[in-house]
Amino acid sequence: MVCVSLTHARRRYLVRLASTMAVYVLFTYVTRWSFQNLHPTGLGVYLLAMLPALPMVGSLAIVGLYVIEEPDEFERSILIQSTLWGLGGALAVSTILGALEEFAQAPHRSAFYSYLFFWIFMAISGAIIRLRYR
Fold it and tell me: Are residues 59 and 78 located together in one domain of the fold?
């Protein structure tokens, strides 16, 4: 079992991230409901479609804030390494899926999933990095 101390910076990070993800769930629900029931048109379509992306972008800024606020260099290092692996993994999967779509006529997958790939790879790499230092 990996034990991670809860510094003030980590606590703020987790609260901010959880709050942002709650807003993401709410915005996604509101957007889906609005498209199914209100059938927006014109500029409203674009503004409403971007609504769930706002907390997603905010969550990336929250990672940056945590890097700035975390006083423990070791914890900062782990987060930075896992973020880089997360970005690399998301780019790799997105690139492979794009190549399959482009050249092998594979079904289209929305770029919206790149964000999910980022967090999956970041979580996996963070766990592996922590295990490496056990």
Answer: no
